[in-house]
Amino acid sequence: MERHELRRLLVGDDAPSKAARAALAGGGEYVVLEGGSRLSDGHAGIFAIRLRFMRRKAAEILGWERAVQLLRERVQPIRIGYITAPDGAWIYTVFLTADGSELVACAGVRRPEGERVQTPL
Description:
Blueprint: H1 3-9, H2 15-25, E1 30-32, H3 40-56, E2 61-62, H4 64-73, E3 78-84, E4 90-97, E5 103-110
Antiparallel strand pairs: 1-3, 2-5, 3-4, 4-5
Helix pairs in contact: 3-4
């Protein structure tokens, strides 16, 4: 997926979408994985576990509760992508429809200081 296509999908007014769009506009690295056969509600369970882990670690998160909720509500095959902020401080997870034509949800997490390397995903 081309950078401009992904930016076009991040049109929401929610904080995670705005931040992910800004990260892309600023030159942040990104990758969108090929679609799989797993449905969004299956991913919701996995990401709910990750959310609990991030909370236990007191990580700064953005939009994870809403993302898990949206994945549970819209049961469909999805694609997942990752965007890293140019400074490496944040990583955003984007959940797209299987054909990559629509954003289902977006969430971010601040990376610990020691993990802020600026390398391609």
